[in-house]
Amino acid sequence: MPISANLRSVWSDRVGSWTIDVPDLGVQWSAEASAILGLLQAPPQTLRAMVELVRPEWWDTIDDAIMNCIQGGAPFDVEVQMEARRPAPLWVRVTGEAQRNPDGLVCSVQGTLHDVSGKLAAVEQFRQLSEQFSTTLESLTDAFFTVDREWRFTYVNRKAEALFRHARAELLGRVMWEVFPSSVGSVIQGNYELALAAMQPVVFETFSSALQLWLEVAAYPDAEGLAVYFRDVSGHREVREALVESEERYRLLFESSADAIFEVVPDGTILHANPAACLLFGMTEQDLLLAGSARLVAADDQRVRALLAARDQHGKAKGELTVLRGDGSRLEVEATVGTYTTMEGKTLLNVVLRDITQRLRHQQEIMQLNAELNERVKARTAQLESANSELMSFAHALAHDLRAPIATILGFSTMLGDTLEKVGAERIRHYLQRIRVAARQMDDFIGALLAMASVAQSSMDKGEVDLSAAARGVLADLQEREPQRKVVAHVQDGMVVHGDANLLRVAVENLVGNAWKFSGGREVSEISLTAQDQADGEIVYCVKDNGAGFDMAYADKLFGNFQRLHSQDEFPGTGVGLANVRRIVGQHGGRVWGESQPAQGATFKFTLEPKPKAAPAPP
Q: Which EC main class describes this enzyme (predicted)?
């Protein structure tokens, strides 16, 4: 039954009457009027008492209506709330009409009293129900609309407005097929007409060319037209299609994979096995399913538990296992396990097995070859070390053997020079002087070779080394050899480093010795050794002088063996010192370089490996 019919059933048809005599204003009530007011025992007898039956906010309304009727004969029809003796509010419709005597004067007012409480309550209930129904339709997540039997829109909710992309005001009262002409002759129209013709609901899914969306539609007919619920399922459909495509890809992968693939329940039951699994085990799929995973893994292989226990947070793990084939033979495989949950909430394992027999054989062969290669390398290294040792011994012995005849040449040339001094042959003395100079140079070169060999063969014995003390010692020795030199030297205090004391002293001797030698042409030589802290924490040590300097274009030759940037007459030397410095600094994990300009002095800078950090004290 419609809502309006239900509401009409609660309306009351009770009507009573009353009369006001004029001019004494006495009131007479019918029994029904008294019953409506609940005043059967003592109905009011005066107009004032009658008015006071009305709630105070309505006094002026009823009083004015009655007095206008008495005085001017104006009829009235008003609804007021009464002070009734009943739990629910009492609303009455009061009508009045003047009665005149033969002289045309108002002699009474006759009226009716109609109980309309039920009607007003029903109207309010209808309003509330309509509002609730409208709110429900507007809050639906589905789009909803209604059309009458002539296909005119009678209601459209907000969601339908959004999907239709038309405002409600544009749709209400218009024929659906005029608004969406592309739907004429479509599946949508066919299903709507079928629902009305059969008076049966229809549910379907279709693509709307008008909206360019996939829709899920439910249409419900009634005598007044059609109510339609619909929703956009384009995204769901894409997901379903992607799922179907994914399942098809997985099926193809499962069937065509060269690796054995099993779908397994956590208790070990095998649900599916691909053709590669059947080939690997030499068994049919049915045989594999009957065997179960427990019988396929070698009983003495305990790695399967470790493999399952090692699964990560995504349920994946990889390891090696020994499996048993159908003929009982053993096979080494690489197993990859993945855990996943089905749409029904079931947990399954995806197990992939790959035969690694060939790989293990290759690994064994490689290990054997590596072992043989290591032995060959050791033998060859021993041979090279022996050859190098013999070569170094030979070079050392040769250097010492060469020094003996050179010393003889120097000695006898000196004796010969002393003898010729008395004769006074200048040309002969000149020749002897050149012989002595050449012999001393050869002796210097041999000494340099021995120094290089010493540096190359030195074993590292690292500890704390005071570079400041080493530099001061070198400067003191040089000053003692050449006391006539004026030298201003500055050595920074506290330059303690980690390294080999003997090697670092050799490096300092060469750098400070170079500064001493190349600043010899100055009236006052200036030599310094300082340390500079860099932004990255590295320390750079600098040996600076105010000597002859050099052209930076030839800086790449500075640290080569027997490389010199000055003539022997200007600054005698072997060109080995800086090469030894580079070798020593490199052995200490550092680097060395020079900066200079001709006649502007030179600065040689070097770094060393930082001191090792001390181990933390035990708690």
A: transferase
Decide if 132 is inside a domain. Answer: no
For residues 370 and 361, the answer to whether their CB atoms sit within 8 Å is: no
For residue 227, count other CB atoms closer than 10 A to its CB: 19
DSSP H/E element including 554? none
Is the link from the previous residue into 44 a cis peptide, with omega within 30 of 0?
no
Same domain, 110 and 223: no
CA distances from 5 to 8, 9, 59, 125, 440 (A): 5, 6, 34, 13, 137
Q: 32: Cβ–Cβ under 8 A, 6 or more apart, which residues?
A: 14, 15, 16, 17
**Shortest CA distance to 467 belongs to which of 542, 552, 396, 410?**
542
Does residue 556 lie within any of the structural domains?
yes
Q: What CA–CA distance (Å, rounded) separates 238 from 38?
A: 70
- Using pLDDT thresholds of 50, 70 and 90, give the confidence band for residue 575: low
Is residue 103 in a domain? yes
CA nearest to 497, candidates 533, 464, 468: 464
Q: What are φ and ψ of residue 297, in 5° steps?
A: -95, 135
Based on the structure, what is the number of domains in the chain?
5
Query: In this structure, are residues 586 and 559 in contact, taking their beta carbons and an 8 Å threshold?
Result: no
pLDDT above 90 for 396: no
Domain membership of residue 104 as a residue range: 3-123
Between these two residues, 262 and 6, which has the higher pLDDT value? Answer: 262
Among 382, 409, 444, identify where a domain stops.
Answer: 444
Distance separating alpha carbons of residues 97 and 75, to the nearest angstrom: 5
